[in-house]
Amino acid sequence: MCTNDKGGFVPPDASKLVARCPACKAFNPAKNTKCKKCGAEMKQQT
Amino acid sequence: MSDEFNKELYKTDARWQEGEYTVTRTSVWTAPGCHNGCGVLLYSKNGKLEKVEGDPNASFNRGRLCLRCINMIEQVYNKDRLKWPMKRIGEKGENKWQRITWDEAYDIIENKYNEIKDNHGVESIATLVGTGRNSMWQPAVITRAIFGSPNLSFGFLSGDSCYQPRMTANLIKLGDCVISDCSQTHPLRENNPEWKKPEVIVVWGNNPLVSNGDGFMGHWIVDMMRLGTKLIVIDPALTWLAAKADIWLRIRPGSDAALAMALLNVIINEDLYDHDFVENWTYGFDDLVERVQEYPPDKVADITWIPKEQIIEAARMYAKAKPAAVQWGLAVDMQMAAMEASSAITDLMALTGNIDVPGGNIIQRYAYNRSKKYGSAIEYISEEMLLKRIGTYESPIHESGYTPFIPPDKLLECLETGRPYPVQMLWLQGTNPIANMAGEAPRVYAAMKKVPFCVVVDLFMTPSAVAFADLVLPAAMSVERDSFRAWWTPLRSIAKGAELYEQCKSDEEIVLDLGKRIRPDRFDQYNTITDYLDQLLQEDGGVEYDFNALVERVNDFWDWDYTYLKYEKGLLRKDGQPGFVTPTGMYEFTSPLFDVWGFDMLPHHIEPVEGPYTTPELMREYPFILTTGNRLWGCFHSEHRQMPTMREIHPDPMMDINPDTAQKLGLNEGDWAWLENRRGRCKQKVRFNVGLDAKVVRGEHGWWFPEKEGAEPTLFGVFDSNINNLTTMGVHGPTHYGAPYKSTICKIYKVTAENDQLSPTEIVTRKGGFGYAKK
Fold it and tell me: Around Cβ B401, how many Cβ atoms within 10 Å?
């Protein structure tokens, strides 16, 4: 039927904007290298 | 809903001959402006349009039309219409022009483009577009695919406060946009076996019978009422729909977020919410429960001026109705708390389990997902060039790509300060900023005067064209061109039903002409407009037919758009899994994106920047709350003022006032009155409105007077009755969305010979404005 990579106003890929800390599950900006809440290492998006 | 019409006479063919008339069955959509795309029958003879009728076979409007289409002949063949390209020969503002050919016009543009590219960089070209929607994608392509500049913006619409806050709130909370379901997504309409009638529709902040906002025709509300749908109307004014509603909430302008939070409070605290949806499909409900406790109905009654009992009654009525829909509009966008109100209202839809259910608020995408280029064309811009977008990096939502536009308030600052770089060229297509969209219009006038080169593409000579343009290009109207509409659903042909007027060109022709000159690598592949439209229709997995086939079909419904509960069926996410296109995959009451962007994660009320609770001392001088921008039956924003028929219906700009208030001020109905605040003043005619609160007045927007002298200082009287002499630029909510067009303040007094010596337009064009300096 359709996928979300087409169309006009569709949101950007959220995984490029926000990432979840693997340790405490807090949401962080995707560019963060350490979690803003618990300081754990964040896995970088590729 | 009536199916009773002569089916032999009203055919389902795309074209037929009826006596001496050729009948073209298609849709019409801007220009002249409109948010809808009604099905029409264009009757033409020898290439000239003679009559327009509503198409009873078009399920969208079922034969119904408003004045703008019915009166189309007067518009297309209006004597004042631009006929050929023109070059300015006097000073800006003198309204002196020389007729030139299209080739000469394109030579001037191409030479200027090359000069700017070599000396300043193409990013110093900025484009402004209006709100007709259809003529939004063409200037986007001109700006980005042809000039290579990333800078595309609304015509100084402060806070992007038209539909952008509502759409963006939808996109952040659930990853898609929702529209109230009056059966319009299915060709069978009410006969679609899956569809259900909304038991209740909340008409929030719009008068759809007049405004016919995006993807929504006002008649549908009446259709639903005939089927038994009950209404809750939220509006400061007693509209026709408000008068027919079970509950009319007469809200203080600019307090919609507080009202939505109180409704959420009642629905949660009285356990009227949809547990199944909340438990299985949402994120952050507990945080919302905590937040809404800050908004009990008695407190919100003080904020909104709506009695507590009415708030509770409305919450119960909406929550208990299954299904129920919210039909929202511009008033939600035009306030400081636009994003917050939009978010809270979207939460109401989710909390009550009305997202994507029959008769609720259904998830919609552009028909067949056509097309990326709609209002965007951003894929033509390199990452390096994207970084040069004006003002975008001061707004995380803009920076993140939730909108393809640059913030208009930041563009104004750029024009005023020359930072981050001076704008060398403005391209205005289908917009007349100082007459219409621009808040604080005199300030925008002064700023636009600074730009060295300006091109205006429009239908008529406008105040903005006279004041700023070096070149004016005449655009074709909808009935004269080939295009299509995919803004929501269905996919519709826009097929030519009349020959081009004089030397006008369609927006699409201008795209191709300029594209072939400046970017032949991108545009030489298209020999005709049809080639180009074919690609727009077919690329990226679009439809399997071409433009000519769409013309034959007239319209085409996409099954995705009328499939319900798409989040359960894995129809939203790229990975095909159930859920929503959000970071959590759920509907988000609490927004992680807002958190990482530094915004409050939950909706909340924000007081208007001027008002009884924020600036009580200022209210002593300016005691009325001023709401603006209510729609007119015959005129679309600043358009249609040249039409005798429209002016018969709307001869003068009108301001609405409670008759008791008017009496205290010594004003009679029909008097001219000044509306004034510390930014400026304008005059409009007094009209009594018994429904308005005694402390609220309402002023019309978009007024200028084509019958007046075009040259400055008169400039078609553009500032004389301009309600945007009183509104703001650069005043918006924390997310950069929403500006208080509908919730500023003013005083009112009678126009007299003594206080009307110098017109507001002369004050602006000759005296440098009203002397307001932002503190």
Answer: 16
Q: Is B177 on the interface with A (CB under 8 A)?
A: yes
CA distance B181 to B189: 10
Write out pLDDT tens, residues B697-711.
999 999 999 999 999
Q: Which residues of A touch B595 (CB under 8 A)?
A: 27
Return the pLDDT at B610: 97
ipTM: 0.89
Average pLDDT (B186-207) is 97
CA B625/CA B54 separation, integer angstroms: 40
> Over 80: is that where the pLDDT of B596 sits?
yes
CA distances from B235 to B253, B346, B652, B693 (A): 8, 18, 24, 11
Relative to beta strand B654-657, strand B696-699 is: antiparallel
At the second CATH level, the architecture of B86-159+392-491+505-556 is: 3-Layer(aba) Sandwich (3.40)
Instruction: With CB atoms and an 8 Å threshold, state whether A4 touches B596.
Output: no
Contact A9 B574 (CB under 8 A): no
**A42: three-class secondary structure by DSSP:** coil
B171 CB within 8 Å of a chain A CB: yes
Task: Supply the pTM of this predicted model.
Answer: 0.97
In the A/B pair of chains, how many CB contacts fall below 8 A? 74
**How close is the nearest chain A Cα to the Cα of B171, in Å?**
6
The Cα B218–Cα B228 span in angstroms is: 16
Residues contacting residue B118 through CB under 8 Å, at least 6 positions apart: none
What is the C-alpha to C-alpha distance for residues B7 and B584, in angstroms, rounded to an integer? Answer: 51
Residues in chain A: 46
Model pLDDT, residue A9: 59
- Residues of chain A contacting residue B164, judged by C-beta atoms under 8 Å apart: none
Q: Which of B173, B287, B566, B596 to mutate to test the interface with A (most CBs of A within 10 A)?
A: B596
Where in chain B are the domains? 86-159+392-491+505-556, 177-364+569-597, 616-767
CATH top class, domain B616-767: mainly beta
Choose the closest CB to A27 out of B404, B541, B592: B592
Average pLDDT over residues B765-772: 94
- Residue window 368-407, chain B: list those with CB within 8 Å of chain A: 369-372, 374-376, 400-404
